[in-house]
Design goal:
11% helix; Immunoglobulin-like; single chain; TIM Barrel; 6 helices; 3 domains; mainly beta
Length: 540
């Protein structure tokens, strides 16, 4: 039953500003709040402690929609003659009554979103005004090819009105049509204009980081869930998944659009090589290598690809399949633009030509006839997969890449699975502990993989679901004294070619420890490597 909270007559001794509205009544119905205004209505419907839907209209009769809440949201409400304050465990929504204004803060009191003026309306549109913080950055707004990831300072018209803020909140306007986002004001004010003079409607999603914001968005827009293992290979264009968004054919433009899509709640960019099938030389080879690391890679059946592109795509299959499932579960994009992965690094938004593939792998493509490029390494430590060298983050370096090479850097403190024929390599980049939850689509479950220093040893643990041959590769590692799997000591071999299940090899030139293991379904395998001297971590 609808319960009235407080009814306050709209009374004021002076004339209200043009378009200003006052609250005359407030009603609550569970997680929904309805406001009768002097010129229309407003509503807030809570979806979770981190998300709500806000509607403001100028209609004679309000449109009431069923609740979208996943579960009842515990709320504390404080109402006075001047305002209504609604608190969840994560957000505080404040609504002033004279005039009616909206503001949102985090549970810690950090201002997130604030309406700083009255709405402006004409015969065809409504503009909703906000105030941004001084350092706030904005991302998303659809398949743009802008070189700037940060929309601050721009005016953008889009039919994909999905916005992410560096303050870890997002706005999504569900009604179709063109929207205009104006971030050009020097004062930090910004406005959103909808092509509808009768109402404005948006979802607000918050989180501790931008990934959590996307997770909240998936509550109202669940991912399609259609991806299978086969989608991790090269597909013919007619088999492009429905949820995949085609990219432009120009490589620099395709790369920028893929990043903007991934920041706009569209997690599945698709790159089609058809236009490159009639070309030769370096531009085609660069296109093939870029396609190999796109979430969805398309090529016509008659097009033969260079072996390096095919091998790269095949090696990434377990990694892509795992992140396809994360997309299905949580709405995260497979391709992570740097601001998504490193939201607190201001430099991350300045690099629209590189990205993370999942949490582990930094990709820095070359395009056209490029043979050299500059790569920015975000916070952390990074290992070049080609050279094996380690670099400190928050720095840039010049790199050279041959036609068959695609620069890739693994973040230290991660595990990266790579499929090499019948063997799955597990690359560990110490010195921090790491884990990887490998998705097994046939079993609809995960194989858990952990690697970490334990006392003076290096330990690997695999909670196996399928049964396969692994090759554990620990980078930046000196030669161990012994390697034990379970209760069995493994044999050391003299070369990588001699490596077989139950043996290990140390590559002194690259400071890499290789251990080959055979597992069975249900195994909980623990491998310990002990060392004659410490530390065993030896970065190159």
């Amino acid at each position: 039953m609808t319960r009235p909270l407080l009814i306050v007559a709209a009374a004021c001794c002076c004339q209200a500003p043009l378009f200003a509205a006052d609250v005359s009544a407030v009603e609550r119905d569970g997680d929904a709040f309805r406001f009768k205004l002097s010129d229309g209505h407003a509503a807030i419907d809570w979806i979770s402690p981190l998300s709500f839907r806000f509607r403001r209209d100028w209609l004679a009769t309000p449109v009431v929609r069923p609740s979208a809440a996943v579960a009842p949201v515990p709320l504390r409400v404080t109402e006075t003659s001047e305002s209504v304050e609604i608190k969840s465990a994560s957000l505080t929504v404040s609504l002033s009554k004279r005039p009616f204004r909206l503001s949102v803060t985090s549970a810690k009191g950090v201002p997130l979103l604030r309406q700083n003026a009255d709405e402006l309306r004409d015969a065809t549109s409504t503009r909703f005004p906000f105030q941004a913080s001084a350092s706030e950055r904005f991302f998303g707004l659809g398949p743009r090819a802008d070189a700037e990831l940060n929309a601050r300072g721009q005016v953008i018209e889009t039919d994909r009105p999905f916005l992410l803020s560096s303050l870890s909140y997002g706005l999504c306007f569900p009604r179709s049509g063109r929207y205009r986002f104006d971030f050009s004001s020097a004062s930090g004010a910004f406005g959103v204009t909808a092509q509808d003079s009768r109402r404005i409607d948006f979802y607000f999603h918050a989180g501790n980081n931008l990934k959590e914001v996307l997770d909240q968005y998936s509550l109202v827009e669940p991912p399609s869930g259609e991806l299978l293992r086969e989608h991790a290979g090269f597909l013919s264009p007619d088999r492009r998944p429905v949820a995949a968004v085609p990219l432009p054919q120009s490589l620099p433009e395709a790369l920028r659009v893929a990043l903007h899509l991934s920041l706009s709640g569209l997690p599945l960019p698709a790159f089609d090589l058809t236009e490159f099938s009639a070309t030769e030389g370096l531009p085609r080879q660069r296109a093939e290598m870029l396609a190999a690391v796109m979430p969805i890679a398309l090529r016509p059946p008659f097009m033969k690809l260079q072996p390096a592109a095919l091998a790269l795509r095949t090696s990434l299959e377990p990694h892509l399949v795992t992140y396809f499932q994360e997309m299905n579960d949580r709405g995260y994009p497979v391709l992570h633009p740097l601001p998504l992965q490193f939201p607190f690094d201001p430099e991350s938004a300045a690099h629209p030509d590189q990205f993370m593939l999942g949490d582990e792998l930094l990709i820095a493509p070359l395009t056209g006839n490029q043979t050299r490029r500059r790569v920015y390494l975000p916070p952390g430590q990074w290992t070049d997969l080609d050279s094996g060298r380690m670099y400190r983050g928050r720095t840039s370096l010049e790199i050279t890449a041959a036609a068959h090479q695609l620069p890739r850097f693994a973040k230290n403190g991660t595990i990266l699975p790579l499929q090499r024929g019948p063997i799955m390599e597990l690359h560990y980049f110490p010195q921090l502990g790491a884990e990887y939850f490998l998705w097994e689509p046939e079993l609809q479950g995960i194989t858990q993989i952990h690697a970490a220093p334990v006392a003076d040893d290096l330990r690997l643990e695999i909670e196996e679901r399928v049964g396969r041959v692994y090759q554990f590769v620990s980078h930046h590692t000196i030669a161990p004294q012994r390697v034990v799997a379970g209760a069995k000591e493994l044999n050391r071999v003299a070369s990588l070619d001699q490596l077989a299940a139950g043996s290990w090899f140390h590559d002194a030139a690259r400071s890499e420890l290789h251990v080959r293991l055979r597992t069975a379904p249900g195994d909980d395998l623990i491998v310990n490597a002990s060392f004659p001297i410490q530390p065993w971590f030896a970065p190159r």
